[in-house]
Amino acid sequence: MSILKKALGVEKQIDSFMDQVIRSGLIFSQGAEAYLQGNTTDFQRKLKEIIEVEHAGDDLRRSIQQYLYTKTLIPESREDVLELLEDMDSLLDRFKGALWRMEIENLDIDEDFHDDFKLLIKAVFESVESIVRAARAFFKNISSVADYLDKVYYWESESDKISTRLQMAIFRKEELRLSHRMLQRELARHLDKIADRAEDVADRLNIYVIKRSL
Amino acid sequence: MFGFLSSGLFLGWSLGANDASNVFGTAVASRMVKFRTAAIYCSIFVIIGAVVSGAGASHTLGKLGAVNAVAGAFIVAFAAATSVYLMTLARFPVSTSQAIVGAIIGWNLFSGSLTDMTSLTKIVSTWVLCPLLSAGIAMPLYLMTGLIIRRFSVHMFKLDLLTRWSLLGAGIFGSYSLGANNIANVMGVFVPVAHLGDISLLGITFSGAQQLFLLGGIAIGVGVFTFSKRVMLTVGKGIFDLSPVMAAVVVWSHSIVLFIFSSVAFESWLKGHGLPSFPLVPVSSSQAIVGAVIGIGILKGGKSIRWKTVAGITSSWVTTPIIAAVISLLSLFFLQNVFQQDTYRPLEFSLDNDSMLLIEQAGIPIENLKPLMWQEFPNAVAFKKQVEKTISLDKKFLQLVMDAAEVDEMEISAEALNSVKPLAMSAEQFKALQALEGRVFTHRWQLDTALAEQSPEFQFVEGNPGKNSSLQSLLKQLYNKFRQ
Fold first, then answer.
1. What residues make up the domain containing B26?
2. Cα–Cα 20 to 30 A to B408, which of A40, A143, B156, B183?
3. A1 touches chain B (CB under 8 A)
4. Does a structural domain hold residue B342?
């Protein structure tokens, strides 16, 4: 019975860890929006929240990692599961990194680019939300993983399109200083890279699924 | 006696080192069950299976060649064990069943005994049927398991847990079936020659055969602990990369197949329901496991199966009986001629008036056989050769002539009557025996007939395999007691 309890315990921990990744995406979206609106109070609050979420995520990941190693659970998929969890954790880190970048650079984003930045943030969040759904399905219902992976690829491609359009618009705005243009371009690229990273995780997850097809 | 049994124990050890790996090999290789846990459960349930239901499959093996001297039984088991050991060293999941069959045939050749082709055909046909049946069970079982997992969206960790329990359950069931089915290979040849009395322990009576099976089971357990780990890893990883779920399906299929070929109760149930039954034959657990693994491999498209490994295993099925037969022949020659040990009791054949009468009553024309009357033939092969030269008979009638002519002199002496008292028989049966005191019989069938005339309890009843089997066993014990 204790083994059953432990197995259920690790199941819950993985679910909580996935919740943390989704939460970090939501906080990032709200924080970035607050930043674009110039709402410093809300932005600072979100920054604080995402740091807490990141700590909680790290703790959960370590605990799961330790448990899987010491109890030799799912020996055939353990390496894959641990890599997946690390990948998901890196997405969480990147959300936190994006908000920190805004805080550090304190960049004044031109009003003309606000809409595209908002669209980019949405696309990035959607891609990460889809990869979290795919990862959850990997544990519970492996046959539906492919559906979510398709969504990841769709939103990553959207994110690419928006990011390219945004970067072109930034560099065509000649009244802005080059340094200003470059910093705004870097922020767009930073956000786009989160979706790229989600796509990389999706590729690996696809292979884990093939390996685990019973 | 125990010195002679040592080769059987060696064979048991080899079986534990080798065939037991089939039961838990996939579980251990996929790291779902620890080797120690596997070894403990395997040993316990092999012993239980051997003692409780080991008798089923040993009858067929007994028919293949009735090894009638303890030194011969020693060599047969020794030859089988040596071949299994050699194949184990070569890391092939070799079959003890094939080794023992080869060794018995070696003894038959040496002693001039006939190899019962019906039993041999029955046994060899299972070498083909067993993997096919195993694949046939594994394929739908695997598809069904996949369907259930998808239908109920089982979480990876719950599935992991269920698979572990399933592997353990299948391993326990497999160990029990292995003990029940394969103990015949280990100790079967000793049953007719080792005359052990019944022992009562905690109100349970253990027959001589059961005591032998217990010893064999313990030897298997020792083999599991000391040498099976390496083979487990070969079996688990060698043919096809198995996921834990596949591993569970493979072991269940293997265990079901072994159970089918060893359970008297299941055989009776099938017959009782008018269904075709399977022969109770010691089958190869290696074949069962390979069959199941290939079955799943085929479902997966067949591309990942390492056919080279499969071919290696298959070739060992051919080489094992040959190696065992050669070792058996050479060792028997050595023991008989160098150590002056009787490796067989010569069976003479002679047609006398009584034999001819019995043959005539069966509707066989005896004119052609008359020239053979009173001639003495030193063994079954020589007699059969002469009979076949003289008259053309079908298999059934030829067997009848052989049985009628086999010389097995027995005397119902007062001393022998005293020695049969502890045997498990009814008062009426003992009374029937007493009535024959002082009589001398030249052939076994004469004693059978005389006893059947004395009491209906010595008569075989059609459609009652249980009674017939215990009567047969009692008669065998009586022959041993009264034999001159």
1. 2-337
2. B183
3. no
4. no
